[in-house]
Design goal:
Radius of gyration: 18 Å
Number of domains: 1
CATH class: Alpha Beta
Number of helices: 7
Helix content: 25-40%
Strand content: 15-25%
Structural class: alpha/beta
CATH topology: Rossmann fold
Strand order of the largest sheet: 3-2-4-5-8-6
Shape: globular
Length: about 210
């Protein structure tokens, strides 16, 4: 009963207010918003979207690019042999790295191989997170680990993480996938934007070849 009441209080108005992503992606998507916008001048930009990650493009500020899907199981992140070297301006993966059955370094190396010189990879993943499927769950990554995996890239544009302990209260109340209102006074917004660097739930990296 108490759980239900608290859940209703936290979610009150969430669907009626202008809102963004759910609690574990809200701050991450804000951190990545328009981070690639300055890279998209001119026509003919090409994106490789790994496992249904094309939705990241507008968040990153990438407009009017040609998107090629590399979805599992037809394509494997650790072996993108169907794609030639130096083909894409961007390679995107959103919450995919933890699911790859193989060496994560291979995923970063393959990302780098298919990128054009100066191209950018954008990979998001998780660290403190329950085991989940789609179809399996193998890995967890700190921002430091992502930097290490991208060590052969010419530069790291950004690497970060977001999380706090209160996220798991939201999850326990069944509100994990409730959209976060874009209203700083709302309890879900306060939880979704508070960050404790020692408790990263999600992590990400943007690196340039």
């Amino acid at each position: 009963m108490l759980k239900s009441v608290i859940g209703r209080v936290l979610s009150a108005g969430a669907w009626r207010l202008p809102h963004g992503a759910h609690v574990t992606r809200f701050a991450m998507y804000q951190a990545l918003e328009n981070i690639c916008a300055d890279e998209t001048w001119g026509a003919g930009k090409k994106i490789l979207a790994v496992s249904h990650s094309g939705h990241l493009a507008p968040i990153l500020g990438i407009q009017n690019a040609e998107i090629t899907e590399a979805n599992y199981p037809e394509h494997n992140f650790v072996d993108l042999g169907a794609f030639a070297d130096n083909t894409f301006d961007f390679i995107l993966s959103d919450q995919v790295l933890e699911h790859i059955e193989g060496d994560p370094q291979r995923a970063f190396d393959e990302s780098r191989r298919v990128l054009k010189p100066g191209g950018m990879c954008v990979h998001t993943t998780c660290f403190i997170n329950p085991i989940h499927g789609a179809p399996s769950d193998f890995w967890r990554f700190t921002p430091q680990a992502l930097r290490y995996l991208a060590r052969d890239y010419s530069s790291i544009v950004t690497a970060g993480g977001w999380g706090n302990r209160a996220v798991w209260i939201v999850d326990a109340l069944g509100l994990h996938f409730t959209p976060v209102p874009i209203a700083t006074w709302h309890p879900l917004n306060k939880i979704a934007t508070r960050n404790n660097e020692l408790w990263p739930v999600v992590t990400w990296i943007v690196a340039r070849k």
